[in-house]
Design brief:
alpha+beta, five-stranded mixed beta sheet
């Protein structure tokens, strides 16, 4: 930890302690966000101190009257905040970070966009956004479920579900979701398929599958987005894959549609957006399946 970041963290923590001294639950929440953000930063090989600073300071301006500090915001920020008032405290907290603590643009953006994120978020922005929703003091069922996803490494799924739940909540109050919020939902609806690929990979590892290849079929197939092929040592291992996949996707929104070829040397498992073909090594070599996809983009999972 550099001295500058260490000093920033001390300053930020002191300022937040003072700002939230009459709001103990909010202060407790801020420390909870910092704890989760630190855990995720380490998990994803990010600077932990940056994550802690952004997390502890994200609600600094929560109880300030935004009308008294409008001169701190750009015209564009004022317009967005006027449309979605929940953004005021985030934007102001970010600018107070620049004024009182430091000048790191990554920390600034992570604070600024923590309410519901934005398209093309950095990993630090993703971490602060989801830490705000899933820190250990959040007891709502939707928050608990998303926290489970986060702890399983399903960050994209957690961001999708948290955004969807927030949109549903504000819609019930006859409020309109922000444009950026709707964009984030669409982006992570697509990205969460990558989390399903991770779960499939976990299941393949349990049956000791080898030579695993994932193809991106989004531009070539109207029926599914990704194709995973793998080799196993026996028909029994191929048959057992279904059970392991079902275990991996349990308590997630992912569903298994069908299984074909049970008891044979080629088992095909359909998970709607993703299809898994697992062969015995001899059958895969005999069919030469990869020859059909020589020009198809591969995905590293």
């Amino acid at each position: 930890m550099t001295n500058s970041l260490e000093n920033e963290l001390l300053i930020a923590t002191s300022l937040v302690e003072e700002a939230l001294k009459d709001h103990k639950e909010r202060l407790k929440h801020s420390y909870g966000v910092m704890k989760m953000a630190a855990y995720l930063a380490e998990k994803y090989n990010l600077n932990v101190e940056k994550a802690k600073i952004a997390a502890i300071f994200h609600d600094y301006a929560k109880y300030l009257n935004p009308l008294e500090y409008l001169d701190m915001l750009t015209d564009e920020e004022k317009a967005l905040c006027a449309e979605t008032k929940a953004l005021y405290h985030a934007y102001l907290s970010a600018h107070f970070y620049l004024k009182l603590v430091g000048n790191d643009i990554e920390i600034f953006n992570a604070i600024k966009y923590h309410v519901f994120g934005r398209p093309n978020m950095s990993k630090l922005e993703e971490i602060i956004t989801i830490s705000d929703y899933t820190e250990e003091n959040r007891v709502y069922s939707s928050c608990v479920k998303c926290r489970e996803y986060v702890l399983k490494g399903l960050l994209n799924l957690a961001l999708y579900e948290s955004t969807l739940n927030t949109i549903i909540y504000i819609t019930k109050d006859n409020m309109k979701p922000a444009k950026a919020q709707q964009e984030v939902l669409a982006i992570y609806k697509e990205k969460m398929k990558l989390d399903l690929l991770k779960l499939i990979k976990n299941a393949l590892d349990k049956v000791k599958a080898s030579n695993i290849i994932t193809y991106d079929m989004r531009e070539t197939s109207p029926f599914y987005d990704y194709l995973v092929i793998a080799s196993v040592g026996s028909v029994r291992q191929a048959d057992s894959l279904r059970g392991y996949i079902e275990m991996e996707i349990e308590n997630t929104p992912f569903k298994l549609r069908s299984v074909e070829g049970a008891g044979t040397e080629w088992v095909l498992i359909d998970l709607y957006d993703i299809v898994v073909s697992v062969f015995t090594e001899e059958e895969r070599e005999r069919i030469g399946f990869e020859k059909l996809y020589l020009d198809t983009k591969r995905v590293d999972i």
